[in-house]
Amino acid sequence: MESRLLLLLLTQVVVLAGLTGCGRDRLVAEDTSQPPVIEPDVDRRDIKTAKIDTENFELGITAGELSVEDFGVNTVLGARFAYHMTEGFFIELAGGKSDTQETSFERLSGAAQLLTDSEREYTYYNVSLGYNIFPGEAFFGKNRALNTATYLIGGVGKTKFAGDDRFTVNIGMGMRLMPLDWFAVHADVRDHIFDIDLLGKEKTSHNLELNVGVTFFF
Known about the structure:
The protein is an alpha+beta fold. Helix content is 17%, strand content 53%. The protein has 2 helices and 8 strands; from the N terminus they run H-E-E-E-H-E-E-E-E-E. It has an 8-stranded antiparallel β-barrel. Strand 2 (73-84) and strand 3 form a beta hairpin. It is elongated and about 130 Å long. The termini are far apart.
């Protein structure tokens, strides 16, 4: 009698375990067959990263107008070489040359010339530190964006003019526009400041230069 009861009890346990397992498998199957609550439907865009050369050296030429105090506005040609230390700071070596005009005193008085032809040559060299204050982009149409930077610059150097070498301070600002990743167009304005005593009284001379130029990164 006891054996029959024990056999019946074991049979019921096996049946309950089988039913529980089947129920669990059915729940798992039902859970995995259900779709997620939120299905992402995002159109992925093709992003083109800016192709900027990693080269930090820049070399180019400039041309513009130089207003030499008392000696008129004259064409100036020059060259520049820059090293970009960081994304913000760069060092620039620059030089330029111009032939100045006669002073208004010479033209109106008809007196002897104050300077010889060779002394009228205006040549400068300087080393400057620049900082990009407004890096950004310029947009041309819907699909064209060019990298740009507006920068401040200043430094010291030497100006050879009127038969003497003069210590010169230069300050200014400019803008760099990059149509290509290795090619840039510049527009600059500079003030070359030095002391001169050509007309018998020493004074501080301000000589403004406005130029445009092209440079190449390498």
